[in-house]
Amino acid sequence: MHGQWDGVLFEGNTMTQAASEMGCYGFSINPGYSTAEWMRNVVLRGNTIVNLGGCGICLSAAPGALVENNLIVNTQAAYHAGITIGGGVDPGDAPDTDAIVRNNTLYLERNTGDAIRSIGGSNLQVVSNLIYFGAAADPGAYCFRHTALSNYAAIDNNLCHHAGSNGAWSSTHASLAAARAAGFDVNGQSGDPLFVAVPTAASPWSDRFQAGSPAIDRGHATLSSRTDRLGVARVVPDIGARE
pLDDT tens for residues 9-24? Predict the structure, then answer.
């Protein structure tokens, strides 16, 4: 989507590919013209996005965007950015302010790219997201690629897990402990989320947890989405798209 839009809703869609090239995206909401562009108050909620090449959800010039309760799966041994906010904004385009990225689940089996890249914008909220990198994922694939802490209204209560022996919390902080020390994700988690089953078409795309998961009841108490991706109310919020 390019141009000038306000209040567009994308909800409950399923996009799947067995494999796709880098130029194939899931939701690409970015400027593409020489004139001023803005995609204000876009909502992406409860979508399932599987093996969509270079990016699952990518937004820029999208102030006030809300990205919540989406399931993003990548099983390819290739670059894939799960969710990206900012980048590629030209003079006259709207700045990426006030975006909210919350309660998304990203299952990235063999990824070589970052899970959540909030590389532009200010007053951002990145909370209660669950990121799982499989054992075969590239150690250089970060859970987060972020800017200065001052650009975030909140970045907290996320779960970042690498099933392999390597893998960093972000491009700046090697571990959750290092991120916490710098003021990021102070209430974050780093353990295995203990999925009941791997999210596949056979499950079908299940991202439920077993008892004892560190994601249970650890979402942000006030900034999490009020329901999960199936419409179940969150009382004590879990991390991720499912309650």
Answer: 999 999 999 989 988 9
